[in-house]
Amino acid sequence: MEYKEAQAKSLLSLDTPCLVLDLDRMDRNVHRLKTHLSGLGVSLRPHLKTAKCVEVAHRVMASPAGAATVSTLKEAEQFAAAGVRDIIYAVGIAPGKLDRVLALRSEGVDLIVVLDSLQQAELVASAARERGDAIPALIEIDCDGHRSGVPPYETERLVQIGRTLVDGGATLRGVMTHAGGSYSARGDEALSRCASEERDAVVHAAQALLHAGLPCPVVSVGSTPTAHFARDLSGVTEVRAGVFVFFDLVMAGIGVCAVEDIALSVLTTVIGHQPEKGWILVDAGWMAMSRDRGTAKQTVDQGYGLVCDLHNNPFDNLIVVDANQEHGVIALRPGANGVLPDLPIGTRLRILPNHACATGAQHDRYHVVCRDKLDVEAVWRRFSGW
Amino acid sequence: MEYKEAQAKSLLSLDTPCLVLDLDRMDRNVHRLKTHLSGLGVSLRPHLKTAKCVEVAHRVMASPAGAATVSTLKEAEQFAAAGVRDIIYAVGIAPGKLDRVLALRSEGVDLIVVLDSLQQAELVASAARERGDAIPALIEIDCDGHRSGVPPYETERLVQIGRTLVDGGATLRGVMTHAGGSYSARGDEALSRCASEERDAVVHAAQALLHAGLPCPVVSVGSTPTAHFARDLSGVTEVRAGVFVFFDLVMAGIGVCAVEDIALSVLTTVIGHQPEKGWILVDAGWMAMSRDRGTAKQTVDQGYGLVCDLHNNPFDNLIVVDANQEHGVIALRPGANGVLPDLPIGTRLRILPNHACATGAQHDRYHVVCRDKLDVEAVWRRFSGW
Known about the structure:
The structure is a homodimer of 386-residue chains. The first copy, chain A, has helices at 3-7, 23-40, 54-60, 73-81, 98-106, 118-131, 155-168, 188-211, 224-229, 249-254, 286-289, 356-360; strands spanning 18-22, 43-44, 66-70, 86-92, 110-115, 136-141, 171-177, 218-221, 238-239, 264-274, 279-282, 306-308, 314-323, 328-332, 348-352, 365-369, 378-381. The longest helix of chain A has 24 residues, at 188-211. By secondary structure, chain A is of the alpha/beta class. Chain A is elongated, with a radius of gyration of 22 Å. Chains A and B meet through helix 6, strand 10 and helix 11 of A and helix 6, strand 10 and helix 11 of B.
């Protein structure tokens, strides 16, 4: 289906499965976080790994030039080609990637790398000297032990990395952290605590660098839960967040959004029934939804997604309980009372995803709808790969 | 990276993460199943949903014209454009998809649909009459209660569906089933039992149709485990299987293949360490591996994949224990004794996937290598979407 053709379509005629983006919900989500961060006096550097789409980026960034965060060099290259000029590549840098980093920088993109080891600092400094480009780097801080980064109390290591960059001819741009641990928290108090621990870790690290006489202009934090529940971001200069643009069932389970805020859904068609088992089969399997089962460990397990009608109204307790590659099995939530709705073959439904980043990645375009209408207002490409 | 460029590359220089296909292993896997089925007197109709690649299809199909099985109309269209003329679209047909089916059929493709309800039979027959094309259909049989299909003992319903097709102007091509339940079996005896139950179900259904005076030229079974463990396929005309081409850790866990048979891997680069935790960070997260955790319920949980050196030799007990979008966390298998190998930043590794269909789907090309060499012999495109 060509793009122009799709624009004349509606949710009643699109080929299924496909990805639907509710523009009103998205705009509301973006407005909410921008307002909150503005009240805290920090800027938003959206993480574009969730959307991977220029049109979405334009609605989220402060300006067409950025700032932005990406998770792959492909994203950096695609957004740079669309005019973004201020980008953090937020995954630890490997030596084999410096050529692509330098190529983008030579085109005028302020592409910032991330690292957490002396070895990486030496590699970056060495490339900076050889190529005559004082590559800027952020030192990643491990605020909650969930992934990479220097623990904030290891100030000696931190200062050594910073000094290696500065003395070696690279630029120490500052520190960054990601409170991935907040994904397993729940409720206002716990999330606010994650946010202040995230802030404390990175501000402590920044102070250690400054105390050693090193520069630290950027103090960057970021995760969708902590971004929304932070009460005080003194010392922080910017917040990175990505999934807030669309939200998803995992975020609803954590308590960061309501189900009604989820802007992404998969349009699907009923293709069969197993009435004895209480099953409705649809053409959205794991290929369309992704294999992400992020709600499995939450209080409410949403299976492979929550089933809604064409206007995104959820059916009571109706979820995708199982998925093959191109088959989704819809049934009442295990243990739920209720009656299976009558949804004959050919009925179109929308399924809200567990994880917007993972479900989005299974598709190459967004079908954009507005204000509960069924018309497709626009088709926006999204890209993938590395 | 352009395709020609990649062809001059090696596993030492490719951008990571990316997908690597070991051609010798693939050819050996294909030869093994073809030899086995040839001994049983049935033909192979490979399921191309795993590979989604014309070059792979050409090495698996009996001829460039087919036969083939697909899981989406996009696959049907792509393979038809490459000359495949005999295709089963093996997912229950929805009314909104008949236009694309008819368009392919009008180009000379014998595209066969699948259905399991009277309503679908009526829709297909009605389209057949209106468009003057006696669309061929297979009735799906539910051999093990795991998904869609008519239970084989419901002969009245089966005959009614068959008669609706025939009397309505469509073609009853036969019956098909998929022993998805075999994925939770293990060992020779259990798998052979699944295979004979699969055979019995579909042969019983075929006999019921024939007994009612209806045609049933095709009797089709298919799943990778049952295809390999079937001892007698009397009454069956063809076998569909897909993942056998590449195999994966789930299949190794079931006992259908050895780890050394797995032809697909993800090339990755070490990007960090957390020595206190025993972690090695790599640039293959769930975006490169997929979120598939198919081995989680097996005897040996392989996390997000088994870690190998560049020549595909597995490290002892080294797996991807956790994954973020673009970060993989490598560690020793929980509970395993052993020493974490010394893998400095920049080291390249290969990771064997849980599920070849899901991991493949995260990538747009195969980097083909042969006989444990590091040179990339070819780059084969793979497609995605619907």
